[in-house]
Write a structure and sequence with these properties.
The protein is an all-alpha fold. Helices cover 75% and strands 0% of the residues. It has a single domain, classed as Growth Hormone, Chain: A (Up-down Bundle). The chain has 19 helices and no strands.
């Protein structure tokens, strides 16, 4: 037994020495059998929470679009289409107002408790929308819904970037948004079912949508409060001693160390970087059309001459297209090691779709434009992959994600307002703005990629042997850590 103990200690010391001499990016990428087993355990334990959260968040946010073709919704509430547009935008006002406190709370409060409470609260708000009687009440509730739903993306982006290796993150970010699109596909069928639900007392079909989804969200929130794994070493992963060592190595590879200490130097470093503003502008520009089509796609399809029921069904291929594009783009990005080039191609596809919508006079063929413009979603997925892969330092990463979500909100708020009723059915001014925004996104992505290539070349010329990391895993930013290699 003593000999075995000495052997184990020797192996552990050798492993520690190897870890100390490794830079963040020189750690082995090829997974051992033990790590593959660990990753499977993480996937089966953690990713269902991610998928369910993104699924229900998209359904809840889009319920207003689902019922937009039900005539009783307008007669019961006295809404016009212009006021309906504002309901879409008020969601993002709440979303925006939550981002700054969200940045603080994410670092100070246990993520599982925080997410669970917010889920319950937004479920209550959604349920209350069934009893909104006028524009003012619905607008206030949409604001609160956006306020509480605002925690979704920052929470998941942060958890994925701390639990998964950088090389793995692009795939799982893709899975996030595929969950959204699956919700869009199933939401179409659910919407048709809701239209056919019976009236029970004062509960008309459009009210059933809010009651059903609000109740489901409350139940999900309670489960997240108790069971969401929110750290790489969470007890819900049931880690063995060997797996705990592997988790430490994976944390070192991520260059993200979870801490409740706010490092203000990370803020100042971020705001001095030109790419911070490029990422922010990209998020605004690519989400102009996202906000518009999330709210208005069913209405635009009815204006092409289709019935209300067919409009909901014909919108389903939009989400199928998104799923296909995300699967293709994330797998190409991972296999080729290229994030930004793939994002630029997806943005070009989106731009082609918008041009089709503008140029084709009328008829069902315009649906091609609606489907292709969905290339904006994989563009945004790869934008997030670029941020999570290339920004390190816990406070800096939270700041980048938070700022990006603020810009996401601005784009989604402004986008629907550009679709004015007087410009229907072709909406020339709005489509022109969306096309121009896509052009700017491609240019900004090109600049960001150029900065990463230049930074990597500069670091390759450094004597890395003179700057070795210690065995302690420090909360260094990508700028502070000379061994950090950017992933263009």
């Amino acid at each position: 037994m003593k000999a075995e103990s000495i052997k184990l200690d020797s192996e552990k010391n050798t492993q520690d020495e190897k870890l100390e001499s490794c830079s963040v990016d020189s750690l082995p990428i090829v997974q051992s059998d033990a790590e593959k087993k660990l990753v499977k355990k993480i996937n089966y334990t953690f990713m269902p929470f991610v998928c369910v959260l993104l699924f229900i968040q998209y359904i809840d946010k889009s319920t207003i679009s689902m019922i937009s073709v039900i005539p009783e919704f307008y007669t019961d509430t006295g809404l016009t289409k212009d006021k309906y547009t504002w309901l879409g935008s008020f969601f993002y006002v709440g979303f925006l107002c939550m981002q700054l406190p969200n940045n603080y709370l994410l670092q100070k409060v246990q993520v599982s408790k925080y997410a669970g409470i917010c889920l319950v609260l937004w479920g209550v708000v959604l349920l209350c929308m069934a009893f909104g009687k006028n524009f003012g009440q619905l607008a206030g509730l949409r604001f609160l819904l956006g306020f509480f739903e605002a925690i979704t993306y920052p929470t998941i982006f942060l958890l994925i970037s701390t639990i998964y290796r950088r090389s793995e993150q692009v795939i799982w970010l893709g899975v996030m948004f595929i969950s959204n699109s699956v919700a869009g596909v199933l939401g179409g069928f659910i919407g048709v079912g809701i239209m056919k639900m019976p009236i029970v007392g004062i509960i008309t079909p459009w009210k059933w949508a809010f009651i059903i989804f609000g109740s489901i969200t409350i139940a999900i929130g309670i489960s997240y409060f108790f069971f969401l794994p929110d750290r790489p070493d969470s007890r819900w992963f049931r880690l063995t001693e060997e797996e705990k060592l592997i988790v430490q190595e994976r944390t070192r590879d991520n260059a993200v160390v979870a801490t409740q200490k706010i490092n203000f130097s990370h803020f100042w470093e971020a705001v001095k970087e030109p790419r911070f503003y490029c990422y922010s502008l990209i998020s605004v520009f690519i989400n102009l059309q996202n906000g518009a089509f999330t709210i208005f796609s069913n209405i635009i399809i009815t204006e092409l001459g289709f019935s209300n029921t067919n409009a909901i069904l014909l919108n389903i291929p939009t989400n199928v297209t998104i799923i296909i594009l995300i699967l293709i783009s994330t797998n190409i990005s991972k296999s080729k090691g290229e994030i930004i080039y793939v994002a630029m191609v997806c943005c070009f596809i989106s731009m082609v779709g918008l041009i089709c919508l503008t140029a084709i006079p009328s008829g069902g063929v315009k649906l091609i434009g609606i489907y292709l413009q969905s290339g904006g979603t994989p563009t945004y997925v790869l934008l997030q992959a670029s941020i999570t892969s290339n920004v390190s330092g816990y406070t800096k990463k939270i700041f980048y994600i938070g700022a990006n979500l603020i810009c996401y909100t601005v784009g989604n708020f402004v986008g629907p307002l550009l679709l004015r009723q007087k410009d229907s059915p072709r909406y020339y001014p709005a489509m022109g703005v969306y096309v121009a925004a896509n052009v700017l996104v491609i240019i900004l992505f090109g600049y960001v990629r150029y900065t990463y290539i230049c930074a990597n070349k500069k670091r390759n010329n450094l004597d890395k042997n003179a700057i070795a990391l210690t065995g302690e895993i420090k909360d260094l930013t990508d700028v502070e850590n000379p061994n950090f290699v950017y992933k263009p």
